[in-house]
Amino acid sequence: MARVFANVKTKLPGPKAKELLQRRLDIVPNGVSYGIPTFVKTAKGALLEDVDGNSFIDFAGAIGTINAGHCHDTVVTALHEQVDNYIHTGFNVMMYDPYIEFAEKIANLAPGNFDKKVMFLNSGAEAVENAIKIARKFTNRQAVVSFSGGFHGRTLLAMSLTGKVRPYKYEYGPFAPEIYHAPFPYAYRRPESMSQEAYTTYLLDQLKDFFISEVDPSQVAAIIMEPIQGESGFIIPDKAFVKGVYELCKQHGILFIADEIQTGFGRTGKYFAMEHYEVEPDLITISKSMAAGLPISGVIGRKNIMDHAKSGELGGTYCGSPLGCKAGIAVLDVMEKENLNERAIEIGDKVMEKFEQLYKNYEVIGDYRGLGAMCALEFVEDRESKKPDGNITGRILKEAQNRGLIALKAGFYDNVVRLLMPLVITDEQLEEGLEILEEAIEATVKTAVQR
Known about the structure:
Aspartate Aminotransferase, domain 1; 3 domains; four-stranded mixed β-sheet; 13 helices; Class-III_PLP-dep_AT
């Protein structure tokens, strides 16, 4: 296939990137990882160009941060206008109206037919930490339940909530107390003898037993759940499971927190993925694509819950920066005018159609799944055993990079390729990217057979 958008002219890393990479290795700690051994020069829409003139199609979107695309004109214009006026005063010192406008718009979009309030923070992990603080303050309870395979950040509390050891938690204990992990549905790996309905019933019964064996529900402030588990490989729970957990929360006076940091702002075809499950969370954490790459996050919640904390108990120096708020307002404008929710569904349909073909052609693909434009391929050694194959996944991603496509690895077993392309991607760019992905799979499988 002739390349129109992707064009890798040098071996990765190229000469300039190689020099920068050495400087990076000399000064940046090894614990800060990188996905592709090169450095960006320019970015626009769904395309990236590196310092050596190589061009790439972006199926990673800065780990789901660029739903509105790189450097969207509307966002860039809003940022320039804001910089000309003021950069930061500290909302807890002298307030500014972009914070109010952005909060009002988000509250109106969030699920739930009740009064809401919104506070802004800096990062996804910080949003999670504050949601837990708010839940504990309101309920006067300490325990929090998260799920196996969930990812909620790298700070102490967020890391404690995360349900995967490596690379997030290994040798970083002791962890925050009163955190409990419940089992999460993984439909592809459920017992073959068990139907989806029976599996959901079984897991909900396990959660009820969990309240006997692990923690009494009267001590639980909140249950936090990703509508789709991101880092664990886009694991999509059954609607009945999510609603069942929600009902258990209501039964026991437990707050339901939806972690929408990766799933929000159009990724699944709705502003918030919880809308698919017809659940109205008490609290919602947001970040990533809410501001097209600006570092801002937030907590949306029921008014009476959010107001329970007293003045000065929440906030921080840079929380809800004017630049982040202005970028966020611009993102919402782009989403509405360019119908990005509908576009996510269109993208998802095209990707899943391609995945179906790939599944038929390559036995190393054990499963393919997606909701909207949040799509993933799971790789296995063989379909009968379903034994995860993280090794082949890494080789496929490297092959893709060398051909001009950037995608991400994920999965509870590190054996999933996940796609988070900007929702402004054109059909031509999407098609070319999917063709490159297929070529990378084919080349990797062929090499494995030759070995």
